# Entry
Amino acid sequence: MALLEFTDRGIYCGQAGVYLDPWKPVGRAVITHGHSDHARAGSERYLCTPVTAPIIKHRLRLGDGMVETAAYGEVVTINGVAFSFHPAGHIPGSAQVRVEYKGEVWVFTGDYKRALDGLSEPFEQLRCDTLITESTFGLPIYRWVPQAETFADVNAWWRQNQAEGKVSVIAGYTLGKAQRILRNIDPSVGKIFVHGAVDVMNQVLRDTGIDLPPTQRVTKEMRKADFEGGLVVCPPSAVGSPWIRKFMPFSLGIASGWMALRGARRRRGADRGFILSDHADWAELNDTVKQSEATKVFVTHGYSEIFAQWLTERGIEAAEVKTQYEGELGEIVESGTQESTAESDVVLTAGEEQDL
Amino acid sequence: MKRFAQLFTDLDQTTKTLAKIKALVHYFETAPDADKLWAIALLSHRRPKRTVNTTLMSTWASEQSGLPAWLFGESHHIVGDLAETITLLLPEPAEVSDESLAWWISFIQQLEPLTIDEKKEKILWAWNRLPHTERFVFNKLITGGFRMGVSQQLMVKALARYTNSPENVLAHTLMGQWSPQQTTLAELLAANSTHDVSKPYPFYLAYALEEDVTTLGEPGEWFAEHKWDGIRGQIIVRNNQLFVWSRGEELVTDKYPEYESLLTLLPEGTVIDGEILPYKDNRPLPFSLLQTRIGRKTLSAKILKDVPVAFIAYDVLEWQQQDIREWPLEQRRKMLESFCPADHPVLRLSPLIDFDSWPKLAEVRSQAREIFSEGVMLKRKRSIYRNGRRRGDWWKWKLDPYTVDAVMLYAMRGHGRRANLYTDYTFAVWDSGTLVPFTKAYSGLTDEEIRQVDRWVKQNTLERFGPVRSVKPTLVFEIAFEGIARSTRHKSGIALRFPRMHRWRKDKPPEEANSLQDLLQLLDAKND
# Structure
């Protein structure tokens, strides 16, 4: 029996009897981060990092007794198997899971990026025998620019919109991308507004000690004039909804790794596509595999078949694994149809929320 | 090139017409004349000749990026555009460039006589000088298919604003044969420039009538004609020469030797507008036959005999060297009738449909297929001949399409704005218990439906062949099409005209899709 196995419920450790990021209800789940394709409701007990805990309690409506936490680096031993979380750099609280048993080490990356984003705990490179890596952007066409360049573009766009009398509306995922935008834009440019779903998540993260600039929640009572010169941060699902019309005239920006391709930018009908990804690009994926010194690599969601073949040709034993994490499908949720985006406290649930 | 790359970025970054015009005007105001001329040429579908083949470009880029050919190929499939793929995969440039657009185009043109090794050296040199967008533009200039999200009409609008001249005059000025190598901006824009005797007029194009026909008002104010399924064209007689232009602004005189005889029939200084139509034994032939003829490099005696063409004339734009597009249609029509012979084998007057009420016309339209027509054209009697696609005076009122329910078998990734999405599908119908592919279709779905189908395809793939996936035969779509013909090139034995997805039949299981027999019946019914 391998230390970790791929089952139809998720990645399973038979020796410990736990699942990593299961997509069906299980007894005990180890969760890498709070996005809905990795943290799903229905399991009996959850183990995650202290920052992820309030996120999944909120999103999955879990009672206090159901969630245990372990700090980064802290070892939790279950039936002789040592589990520990290590920063994945993807979103606040995100972790890679290191699993060790009788001297054999496996690492499951969950979703990750190596570049610093000024928000998430910096990625930690681990060494292991077997690596399970994501490959959302596992193609050489994906090469991220430093985020300072992207945010210089965002700030310039915001200023230009101000000069032209337009509101700046920027779409990014509620958990992770929205806060990354808030942490890195220049708040001296103007007032910042957030969609209700973003506001709720901001509060959850502020409560864990994350510092975000002051924001105002968009409410029904607000008038057009209130938004003048402002920046509105909303989820992608709000794009194309009636909610967004109250900002007219506005310029729409979308922040996502998919914006690296001209076709994807044009398809979205956004005025501006900002390349901003919370996933590793091609070089980062390759660096991670190499520096892990793993002799065997499993590639999950994304361009897994292609990345596995590339690694195999480089002399690293690699195989594609089918999971229900949504890398390649992610683009679907860019559409405006998933979820009502009324100004309620509705928690955006599965389907809305892939981090891209 | 920096300025042009900036224009490209500006146009790419907005979907708003006004912002695009503003960006174009700004470019015209700041770029040197030689660059302006090329920008006008590129935005009116005049491209420099291809001097390097794209396979070589792929090979060199793949080498430079240090990637195996298969990975370069996969990347290309997903990006959906070769020029962009190359741009994304090459290492950052080590040098800087300050050369102009015209300079780079001349650089590309000078590659033509070189050997492959010399070409390679030049291309690598260029790639190493050009940063991202400029490199993309450079690649696009070579690979072709350059779309900047700006129609020719929009470019003309911006140019009209910049030169402060009327749009319709400019539109005409830019028609016909000219190339930036053989003219200057000043010459090109000089009013009444007469250097091109073959110059056609911009075609007036009709929108499809979507409202009820009665909204057009009094039937007496309208002419109705059959809408023929051919190729729109203009025949020009000037300087004792005859020229044939197709709607794609292509000079196609050599393709239709039949029309040469009209040189003696039409007086000097005449331009007529009409339909190039395959025509034999006093009736039109299916368009598919014309297609087989268009594709040939040389026209054999056999094909000229099997698929002869006629010109169905419906308008006259120039008469006795005078531009008469401002005359009302009624008057132009009278003129046309005055010189169109009654019984000429090649030049045929498009007959007016006799009707005094909309229901009467609807009845004629319903029988259009029997005479190989696609429906009815409606033109206001007092309309002038305008340029481009305009609403109001001319409408096409087509027949409802044929439809058939079919099962999706394969999906292929799209290009451009549909890159990395499965948007091009192959459909099948039943034939004694098996599904036989009979058509491809890639239009008709909303963006949201495309995303749903794309997601479904990715989850229900059976096999992959490069950019193509075979999928579980589950999804049923209603396919609409305008015509059906026998074909020896297709396994199913039939070929459809303008197939597209009319509706996603989520309510239908695949077993209830149509059969090949149903399609063959349509074919037989048509040929009766």
Summary: Residues 147-274 of chain A form a domain with the Rossmann fold fold (CATH 3.40.50.10890). Residues 147-163 of chain A form the longest helix (17 residues). The longest strand of chain A covers residues 81-87. Chain A has a mean pLDDT of 89.
